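Regression test case RT-17, inverse folding.

Input:
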């Protein structure tokens, strides 16, 4: 049976490196690219009501663009990837998604977005490493 690999993907250089590594080192694996829309960014941004819905729409559009990039990257390796979009606290969602979908391995960047969103959310990679029951590889 092919290995199930989860690659959290936010478009950062580090997540691109993680996807490349997954594709290069695991040509027979089933790879899922996961983008997590951070509920913390919505809450701390003070966005409510219809503005929150439009921001979510904008974030969903951004996620679709990220998925297109991931698909193009996979095509360069003559591979395909599945995509998934979730909302919540990134580190927690990544671990939950990996467990619920029987992932054997998580390959992720050392860090993604920076600035205020990183301060608010904390270290996603650290949360995943501490809580995941499967192998976690951090790509730099």
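Golden output:
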């Amino acid at each position: 049976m092919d290995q199930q690999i989860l690659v959290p993907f936010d478009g950062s250089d580090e997540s691109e490196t993680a996807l490349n590594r997954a594709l290069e080192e695991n040509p027979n694996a089933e790879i899922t690219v996961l983008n997590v829309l951070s509920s913390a960014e919505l809450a701390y941004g003070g966005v409510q009501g219809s503005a929150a819905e439009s921001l979510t729409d904008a974030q969903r559009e951004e996620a679709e663009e990220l998925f297109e990039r991931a698909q193009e990257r996979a095509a360069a390796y003559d591979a395909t990837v599945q995509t998934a979009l979730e909302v919540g606290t990134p580190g927690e969602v990544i671990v939950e998604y990996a467990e619920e979908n029987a992932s054997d391995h998580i390959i992720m960047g050392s860090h993604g977005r920076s600035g205020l969103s990183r301060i608010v959310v904390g270290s996603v990679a650290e949360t995943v490493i501490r809580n995941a029951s499967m192998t976690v590889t951090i790509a730099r």
